[in-house]
Write a structure and sequence with these properties.
The protein has about 70 residues and is an alpha+beta fold. The protein contains 2 helices and 2 strands. The chain has one domain. A two-stranded antiparallel ribbon has the order 1-2. The two termini are about 25 Å apart. About 10% of the residues are buried.
Length: about 70
């Protein structure tokens, strides 16, 4: 996980606080500050949450790839 504030960290903070989430990932493509991402998690986040986050990102990446290939794997 990247450490330190990214160029869209303020958007990530808004998303995390307004949803009262344990962890948030924001990915911006071609935004007003260019492309980038931000990840935030509560200070007390445990390894199970990070494992869940990793698994979710893999599922998302696989789905995007399938969609980009017309639904084929």
């Amino acid at each position: 996980m990247a450490f330190g504030a990214g160029k869209y960290d303020h958007i990530c903070t808004v998303a995390r606080e307004s949803t009262q989430a344990t962890a948030v990932v924001v990915i911006i493509l071609e935004g007003n500050k260019g492309s980038g991402f931000s990840v935030q998690a509560d200070a007390g986040v445990n390894s199970a949450v990070l494992t869940d986050l990793t698994a979710m990102l893999r599922v998302i990446a696989n789905q995007i790839e399938m969609d980009a290939n017309g639904g084929d794997t």
